[in-house]
């Protein structure tokens, strides 16, 4: 049994706490929402943990994570470990690790995949940091990862920053896979050759080369709404796709699929696209092609 603190009890953090407790670990959780929190403050959380401590942070990336790390830099002691399991940019990890190292506190960055289904199915974990710190936290990782061989749901990706880098690339790949399924769905619907689109997609779940958990989730969505017309086609991006493309450019790695998927998300937010109005105007000018007038 391991005792640990967990900061951030949102959709993923809450389920992680439940999975860890089901595995027999003692988890002291803190969240600004008092209804789900076990403690009243970060100070209170630290006071409830026996040294040497392990604290896992699951708060939004960027400034919220940085503020939390700074706060723990003043609360934790030599020999403690802080884990950032949020979607932080890998370049932030070195700064966080250096801040904590000055206090003798270890730092691990963990890319976590599994979404809201992780409580039941387990989480894919990509870890960056010192081997000794990873070994100390391994009972936690073993409780969170899926059942089966460790190497199929867990990886020690490298030194500090490697875990979040691996998760960034993972999410970039996810962008491309999701976009491919989405385009296939639209083509099936538009062709009018296929009469039962949900049935075809469901039929891909076994025996085909495109079978996957993402496909299973698409089938689930189609079971609930066969034409997906209850939704607007507006898609946000949380940052990892952009960071993946930045790294592709920095390393001269062609990534046309991931870039197209990201730009498709940008396009989904444009109710009226200036670029496409320009394309329509050009087609009319050089070829006399028909155009649709605004408001007409």
UniProtKB/TrEMBL annotation:
Entry-linked PANTHER family: 6-PHOSPHOGLUCONATE DEHYDROGENASE (PTHR11811)
Keyword Oxidoreductase included in the entry's annotation: yes
Record key words, sorted: Gluconate utilization, Oxidoreductase
Domain 6-phosphogluconate dehydrogenase C-terminal stretches: 163-296
Taxonomy, superkingdom: Bacteria
Gene Ontology molecular function: phosphogluconate dehydrogenase (decarboxylating) activity
Family: Belongs to the 6-phosphogluconate dehydrogenase family.
Name of the protein described by the UniProt record: 6-phosphogluconate dehydrogenase
Organism listed in the record: Amycolatopsis magusensis
InterPro entries in UniProt: 6-PGluconate_DH-like_C_sf, 6DGDH_YqeC, 6PGD_dom2, 6PGDH_C, 6PGDH_NADP-bd, 6PGdom_BS, NAD(P)-bd_dom_sf, Pgluconate_DH
